[in-house]
Specification:
Bound molecules: zinc ion
Largest sheet: 6 strands, mixed
Structural class: alpha+beta
Number of domains: 2
Shape: elongated
Helix content: 25-40%
Strand content: 25-35%
Radius of gyration: 22 Å
Number of helices: 10
CATH class of the largest domain: Alpha Beta
Distance between the termini: 55 Å
CATH topology of the largest domain: Hsp33 domain
Strand order of the largest sheet: 7-6-3-4-5-11
CATH architecture of the largest domain: 3-Layer(bab) Sandwich
Length: about 300
């Protein structure tokens, strides 16, 4: 059984659901492509777990992107999760400015987080999340609290081997109808979740986590869903990028790069190489190119 899973649970007598995400192999695959210092890897792990949790709250076909930028030692953090639970992610950082003891606020001071939901069909949604409370989990929890969305609580942690995420989400009133009672329930459940330590989170399996937190509650645990690392880059994508440059510029680039255009995927390090014959062929077959690629 894969350890890379997303598992939903539901409180039978309360209007609250939850999700627990575990990433191990996919996280390791993403780390193996870059040599991230531990604090960068851990923050990337938390972001990956967050993207999988966020994806689990959406009913859609498409991709969710979480992107954080700052002027600090980590300049960019970008993670994606799509509706097939395929994840990828990348971090850009200044290696000499990273210290093992640095807090999130020191690694990414005044970071701006952008949450983008890009459905296969329909409108793109973008939300700006302010990075606050010294953690990604707190920032996301506050974002949901201050927006028009359902109250949602996030708990994230990672070490150098695995990343884990825990989410609680208030559902529309159905089982508990008195607002004050709903509020008490939400406070009670999130306070208990808050008592979970990173050590417990990284050691315990999902069932034990729920047992540890909510032994008094009747909980239904759904089937685990597998999560995979997958990069959506391809030779075709790279070819389209060249086509959109236009023939003249592509040939110029070919000259600049000594007869071979190389396009490296920043996520997975895959390299796509186009030589002069490839470029000529590409523009000959250019009828399949998008109209914007046509040079006038
Ligand atoms: Zn790639």
């Amino acid at each position: 059984m894969s350890k890379d899973t997303s598992q939903r649970f539901l409180f039978e007598n309360l209007d609250v659901r939850g999700e627990i995400v575990s990433l191990e192999q996919s996280y390791q695959e993403i780390l193996s492509r870059h040599h991230y210092p531990t604090p960068v890897a851990m923050l990337l792990g938390e972001a990956l777990a967050a993207s999988a949790l966020l994806c689990s709250t959406l009913k859609f076909d498409g991709t969710l992107v979480l992107q954080a930028r700052s002027d600090g030692p980590i300049s960019l953090l970008m993670v994606e999760c799509n509706s097939n639970r395929q994840i990828r992610g990348i971090a850009r950082y200044e290696a000499n400015h990273i210290k093992a003891t640095m807090s999130v606020d020191e690694l990414m001071p005044q970071a701006i987080l952008v949450l983008t939901i890009d459905p296969t069909e329909g409108q793109r949604y973008q939300g700006i999340v302010s990075f606050e409370g010294g953690s990604l989990a707190t920032s996301l929890t506050n974002y949901f609290a201050s927006s028009e969305q359902l109250a949602t609580y996030f708990w994230l942690c990672a070490d150098d081997k695995q990343a884990r995420g825990f989410l609680l989400q208030a559902l529309p009133a159905e089982k508990e109808l008195v607002p004050e009672q709903r509020e008490i329930t939400w406070q009670h459940l999130t306070t208990l979740a808050h008592s979970l330590t990173a050590q417990e989170m990284l050691k315990l399996n999902n069932q034990s986590i729920l047992q540890r937190l909510y032994s008094q509650e009747d909980i239904r645990l759904f089937e685990e869903q597998a999560i995979h690392f997958h990069c959506s880059c391809s030779r075709k994508h790279s070819a389209n990028a060249l086509l959109s440059l236009g023939e003249e510029d592509a040939k110029e680039l070919l000259k600049e790069q000594q007869g071979q255009i190389t396009i490296d995927c920043q996520f997975c390090n895959n390299r796509y190489v186009f030589d002069a014959a490839d470029v000529t062929q590409l523009f000959k077959d250019g009828s399949s190119a998008p109209p914007s690629a046509t040079k006038h």
